[in-house]
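thread: overnight batch results

M.L. [08:02]
morning all. the overnight job finished for the chain we discussed friday. pasting input first so we're all looking at the same thing
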Amino acid sequence: MASLSLCSAHLISTPSRSSLPTSSLSPPLSLFPSPIIRRNSSIFFAVTPRQIPQSFSTSTSLVKCCVKEPLKVMISGAPASGKGTQCELIVQKFGLVHISTGDLLRAEVSSGTEIGMKAKEFMNSGSLVPDEIVIAMVAGRLSREDAKKHGWLLDGFPRTFAQAQSLDKLDVKPDIFLLLDVPDEILIERCVGRRLDPVTGKIYHIKSYPPESDEVKARLIIRPDDTEEKVKARLKIYKQKSEAIISAYSDVMIKIDANKPREMVFEETKTLLSQINLNRMIKTDKASPVQDNWRGIPTRLNNIPHSRDIRSYFYEDVLQATVRSIKDGNTRLRVDINIPELNPEMDVYRIGTLMELVRTLALSFADDGKRVKVCVQGSMGEGALAGMPLQLAGTRKILEYMDWGDDATLGTFVKLGAIGGKEVDEEDDIFILVAPQNAVGNCIIDDLQAMTSAAGKRPVVLINPRLKDLPASSGIMQTMGREKRLEYALTFDNCYVFRLLYYAGTQYPIMGALRMSYPYRYELYKRVTEENGKEKYVLISTYSERPTPDQINDAFSGKSREESKKPSGIWGFLGSGFF
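M.L. [08:03]
and the structure it wrote out:
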């Protein structure tokens, strides 16, 4: 089976599992047969397309792939919206060529080029440089080899509708137009509070980024443009021009709430740009069992046991999201999936389904030549308190007896272990941790920290972790250290989420579902019954971050996001014990 080349930093000089003789890969009788994708199964249906720009097609086809063409991005934002910071982060992450008209003008003038000399005449006379000169400079820069090869980020340009039309005539069209949105009062506060160090050129802010010493503070000055009067005038001009620009790029324009910490703003930006890159990937191996188009959420999820088609669908869905996330360089991942057979809070929970999911992931990475360590936590506590969570009872034995495809796989490409720093071997490439969780009065976090520290930059994937504190009456694992434990747990990024939604306190009927498959947004679906009695899931909202229960309530009741939220509602996450 062809798959993406992963974790190249940890390749080992041994033959890949897929290079073994075909005869040695014939699977014997299996305790849990390997999943088979049946694409024409009647349990799937089409869903409403994502409400995002047309260039963001919803194909999730993924095998050995390449990007057809580099990213082309335009970004706009009012003064003090954080545009400069986001440009720096975008360039660092995606390697785009940053193009600013101000930098271009200065470079052309200092180089003494013909176009630079023309621009200098206007600048010396105090006049604006004509559009045709600026457009010619931008077009020339975009035509250079580095911009063609690596893609470009056009910063704050075009500024007028006429400039946008001129670029369009030259076939300069962005894949996405990012608009950073910040309330006026916040922008004014950011500008008025800025201070410049004339010695270093560094920018400070009296509230959010004060100088590091009294010496620096004493020499700070206010820039002439950072008075409240001038800021308001600049904002007025920006708004007048931006309205026309927005209409020119409305089909690819995404408005981003930039009134947040820069890391949170960039997380949304990164997701959008990664999604464009992903959708440009082309499939090179048509024989691989992947979905050519995502076919929607399977139905009849309350029918237990789940059919092989349903289980295989989720195994493949989780696998593809995990592969994409690791390919993007993420190393601390978590998968949260709570279909009934994978939800320990329901009486239909099946440990075999969890083991099949783990095996699907492990074998896929092994097929790619990676050494995979599947880890199950051992006994916790001491003496009479020794034991392990009921959900994991017998897991290690089941893994040992499962069908791993051939005699050479288990023990060579896939090894079993516990959770802890001592379990990390130099030859390991990736670690899959099976439902790590705290027990009453005992915490798995210390073992997890030791393991991730020893793993370094190698991927660690948590499958259905439960990292919420479970304090005992003896006072063990109470509030002391809780903040640090929660902080560590948050270092794992979700690469896949699937949760069924019910009326609060019930397990029937299914009202909808929440799904996130990296690098896409969180998608909220409502389950509806059609006239012919068949059910389907309809997309009703998307989110850049995991929605709160109140946001879900509002979406189901049809309220807009601008309307006030109620403090509580009827919808609930089943299995809220998952951290």
